[in-house]
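User: Please run a holo structure prediction.
Assistant: Happy to. Please share the sequence and the ligand.
User: Here you go; the ligand is S-adenosylmethionine.
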Amino acid sequence: MTASLVSQEVRFDRALIEKYDRAGPRYTSYPTAPHFHEGFGPREFQLEIARSSAEQPDRALSLYLHIPFCDTVCYYCACNKIITPDRARAVPYLETLIREISLMGRHFTPERQVTQIHFGGGSPSYLTLDQTRRLWGALRDHFNLADRSRGEFGIEADPRECPEGTIAHLAEIGFNRISFGVQDLEYAVQKAVNRIQPVELTQRCVAEARAHGFQSVNLDLIYGLPLQTEASFLKTLEVVIRDLDPDRLAVFNYAHLPQYFTPQRRIDATQLPPPEVKLRILEQTIARLLEAGYVYVGMDHFAKPGDELAMAQRQGGLHRNFQGYTTRAECDLVGLGLTSISQFGHAYAQNYKTLPEYYARIDAGELAIFRGLALTADDRIRRDVIMRLLCDFQLDRAATGKRLGIDFNACFAEESPEIARMVAEGLLEDDGNLMRVTAGGRLLIRNVCMAFDWYLAHGPQTKAFSKTI
Ligand SMILES: C[S@@+](CC[C@H](N)C(=O)[O-])C[C@H]1O[C@@H](n2cnc3c(N)ncnc32)[C@H](O)[C@@H]1O
Ligand code: SF4
């Protein structure tokens, strides 16, 4: 993609949304994780690391650390988490994670500088500040971390676990980006999902983050939760905009899939807003955020125009990986901790999902990878196309063909009737070379990407996809 400006226009098109309301992947990877297989293990992964380092010895690294613990359960939660108020359980986890950092670090020379770190979960704020500091020390001991002014070092924090002073300490440890889980500010909704979080608490956390130099403060909201109405969610939005004033907002759609996510069985399904109400909440959310000056960056994500994510999107410099959208040109992503996923040039690898399996592998002095995938040439082409669509909302066939060394039209001949159909239905505009997602099609970007997903049409079918509304 050249540095041409990408338009950030988005429009709520009810007819289009209703027509395309079908479940699909969120494309934090392509192929998606359900296609990983156990034939790909630590040995294959190490070969991929060696290949990547040989191809580009100074390619930057991005580290993802998964801290799975949470003190109490939020009933809607679909994250990879372990709920326990017993903080002692974090102790062996931390020791093992530090050993994994040391094992993994041996595969990289200092030339491979770490320009991005992300602590995700679960709740990374479950750890004590001393534990977090130790973890950071281990990263520093075993990897070459970029200077704080050049690195993007983020943490997902639960305000309920950030007593006064916590955020100052996180800054002092080295973090400079922060995201807070909020979801909804109404007490009745919070009670229905078992997450009581007074707005004053979130407000104090946001203020502390700003006072300590955190950039791009993000808040997570969810629409479609029990007892939400148009009026109640608008109230939440008003307070978020006026009193919390985040640089970025993630507004996720709640997908109720109690058959896959056990805590969701504790949600009273009769209290969920019906699809029609959810649609109106989404419509109103977009209108209100645009009016407040936010721009639609990409799937579920809004940002102020001056935020680095919004600027990167305008300039065609946005990227997508397991953590969502990022401004960093694709670096190799190293996943550490339970369930975490690594992404190298040509492969994905995922760690074990249960503590005993994870502990056993690391105790044996091995990487804890239980499955992965070596991408075929076709996978890599399609991944590029899907990721560019997700980030740029447009695709230049000639430029893409040139970049990937392919004849685009020949490569995607099978997809061209589907592209023509999306043009006819108003999802895409197409001048024969430039395919551009319309303002109304942007909320349905995953549906556009699905047309390029080989596995959806030909591969084994997978489960647990969510919908747009
Ligand atoms: C790892 S949590 C964020 C950090 C911390 N655990 C917290 O909740 O504050 C990631 C985010 O995923 C979102 N999320 C979790 N389950 C979801 C679901 N079923 N549907 C939509 N969003 C969900 C929530 O917005 C949540 O803030
Ligand atoms: S939303 Fe966050 S705090 Fe709540 S259960 Fe999920 S990961 Fe834990």
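Residues 70, 76-79, 120-123, 156, 158, 181, 183, 220, 222, 252, 254-255 surround S-adenosylmethionine (ligand 1) (CB under 6 Å).
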